[in-house]
Amino acid sequence: METTTFEVQESGERRENKRKAESDGEREDDEHFSDSQCESVPSTNETPSKKTPLEDGSDSLRVTKKAVVVLTRLPEYTIKAARPPMPQQFYSEDESLGSSDSDMQWEPDTDSSDSDFSVSKNKQKSVKPTKSDTTRRPSKPSPQIHKNNNVSQPAPVIISSAFSCCSNEITKIRPNLPEEEVKVDMMVLARKRPMRWQRGKIVEIITREDGKLKYKVSFEEKGKSLVSGHHIAFDTTPTPKQLYVGARVVVGCEEDKRLFKPGILAELPTRRNRLRFLVFLDDHLPVYVGLPLLHLVCRPLEDVVDDIPDSRHKSFMSRYLKDWPYPHLTQYKAGQSLNIELNGVQQRCEVQVVDSSLMQVVFQVDQHMEWIHRGSIRLEHMARFLELKRLAEHKDG
What we know:
It is a single chain. The protein is elongated and about 155 Å long. The protein starts with a strand and ends with a helix. 16% of the residues are buried. The longest helix is centred in the last third of the chain and has 16 residues, at 380-395. The protein has a 5-stranded antiparallel β-sheet with strand order 9-8-7-6-10, with no helix packed on it. A hairpin with a 5-residue loop joins strand 19 (358-363) and strand 20 (369-373). The chain is built from 8 helices and 20 strands. By secondary structure, the protein is α+β, with helices and mostly antiparallel strands. 20% of the residues lie in helices and 28% in strands. It has 4 domains: 2-71, no CATH class; 91-147, no CATH class; 173-323, no CATH class; 325-395, Roll (SH3 type barrels).
């Protein structure tokens, strides 16, 4: 910043001569000089000078006026005080909309979507305040949280999107591999009852008159049974390339190592299901398991659903395998209420946890918890959807 001052340099000799000039009648020049001190003189490089009439070669009277520009550096705090205030100075650190966590509290005027993509998109576009904003808008809960609090909805969304994009994750074609040999003294898992398979040893292979083979199995616990090839499974763990959606398998029970249950493979490991196998047991119970618990049936039927005793589950599995890899799934969230069939009656329950294609629910009638598939026919909304779809297909021929 520049400061312009006018400095009149007078020596003692000038003041002495000035008094002499006043006494000699030169008051007019002196008054003119006094008035010039009160006038604004522009900054210039020229140095005006004025000489009095009393000037001889040795004892001269000289009055000199000089305009001097003096540059003075002001303190930093003075410069800051002179600047206009910035918008951020109208807000405290907690109230500033430019802070890192302010976007979670600020809501735009327009309605935003409640999807995760829209929320992240809003985070990237922070709203900067203007000078006219003197008060902070009150914070309100995000649309995502508001939707979760709305626990009761008339009907869920039913989707039929592709389960995966990789062919090796969605295949339902049985691989063209040579069949493993089944021989005497071989340890297998054999059916003892429809939902109870046990470990045993093949003691005899019998060929019937129609050419079909029967296997006599002696169980480890006790007893013997004569079974068909689709009622025995290999005791060894299969390789991933042997597995496909629709494969007939037997699953080991973690609670009882001696017990095994039959089912159909419904999902192969993907990032979506956290690299697990989904199996529908023959009693319609869905379970996620790891590879060590799986066992391939030795000689499955051409249509694997023909081995399911329950007609409703058989119909469901036929539809599921037909729709794969576009299975119908309902969209539920934790806290939502819905109706699920229990012992032939629709009962009210609440969603506790959603895990990939499954969800855990608790029934209000007895507070027992259960895992159920999000496309199960036990769901009231899914049963209605499948019935309407069946009628539409029947009407179309």
